[in-house]
Amino acid sequence: MAQTKTQHAWRLFELPSMKKWWKGLIKNKWVKVSLALLSAVLIVTFIRWSIQISSILFEWALVLAVFAALIYLVRKGYQKITGKELNAKVEQAKGCILTFKEQQVLYGISQGLTNKQIGESLFISESAVKKHVSNIFVKLNAKRRTEAVHIARESALID
User: Is residue 94 one of the residues assigned to a domain?
Assistant: First the structure.
């Protein structure tokens, strides 16, 4: 004989007194409504807590990311260049003569290419590109790729 759903559910409560108590409780419609409301409140509360916890974790992740970026910049020795220093570097670079390969590498840098991509497009090795980049930095008196591109554009070495 197949059991109904309620019979199967009552197997959870094997004690006869428990069974009787639960049957009497669930027959009361106000208890059913209050249990439904209580479960809805618990679900909403759980969702709110999980959202609050996830937002707190997200905030901490952002704080850690900012600190990691600051530490990276401090370790790299980031220095903001002033307008006067940049103008002096541009004036220096106007008299600078770059070789044809260095101009090609500088154009690749201005396009945002990596050393490997520049080497593949110019059919030279990555180490040769690195050497050209070092020479460009020395000739333009730049410390970073973006600074070199900015100086080159201001002094009309590239378009």
Answer: yes
Sign of the Cα pseudo-torsion (65, 71, 74, 77, in order): negative
Find the domain containing 65 and state its range. Answer: 16-76
Answer yes or no: do 147 and 89 share one domain.
yes
Rounded CA-CA distance 134/9 in Å is 77
5 within domain boundaries:
no
Tokens in use for 60? 């901490």
Spatial separation of the C-alpha atoms in residues 136 and 88, rounded to whole Å: 17
Helical pair 126-140 and 145-154, crossing angle rounded to 10 deg: 60
pLDDT tens, position by position, 49-101: 888 888 888 888 777 888 887 777 776 665 566 667 767 777 777 777 888 99
Q: 87 with 72, same domain?
A: no
The one-letter code for the residue type at 108 is: G
* pTM (predicted TM-score): 0.48
User: Is 28 part of any domain?
Assistant: yes
Q: Report CA 25 to chain centroid distance, whole Å.
A: 53
Neighbours of 93 (CB within 10 A): 20
Q: Which two three-digit tokens encode residue 12?
A: 């959870």
